[in-house]
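User: Hey, quick favor. My workstation is busy. Could you predict this chain's structure for me?
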Amino acid sequence: MQVNDRNRNRRNIGLLALIALVLQLGIAPAITIGQGHPNFAFVFAAVVALSIGGQTGVLVSFVAGLLVDLSSTGPIGLSALLFSIACYILGMEVRDRIAEEPSMTLIPFAVAALCVSLFYAIAMLLFGESESLLEAIVFRALPSTLLTILGYVPFLLVMGRAGGSGLRGGVTGKHRSRYTLGNR
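Assistant: No problem, here it is.
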């Protein structure tokens, strides 16, 4: 039996959103490699998608992307679209993948972060914000991806250590068999 406490989900998502907001608006602009910055809003959206998934993951990713769009010089809606697509794919299984297998979420997150950074950089090139494809990919997208992945690791460690008491709450992973009724 898996307990789904919506109020607990809202509290945990709210706390995580506040942390991500402070990191995105206060700290991310100061951390740079080349022209790339970490994207803590995407980290937050991906953590929710990997922990809860479904409609909640997509809705949270859209709002996080919209926040990035409103706080940057890029076109409004681009990050929201990219985050929503990436987090829809990450959260398709609608299970708490971080609590069940935290290390196995790093690769899908890294691929999603790379895709979001690449598509965003290419779109910014098309809008005239970058001067060349080389600059867009090598100096913006790849450093942003690296910094975003490094920003994901602490969230992964904390959420993975929380186990079944992560965003979703309830009983998951190796303890599931003690509380499951009937056949698996």
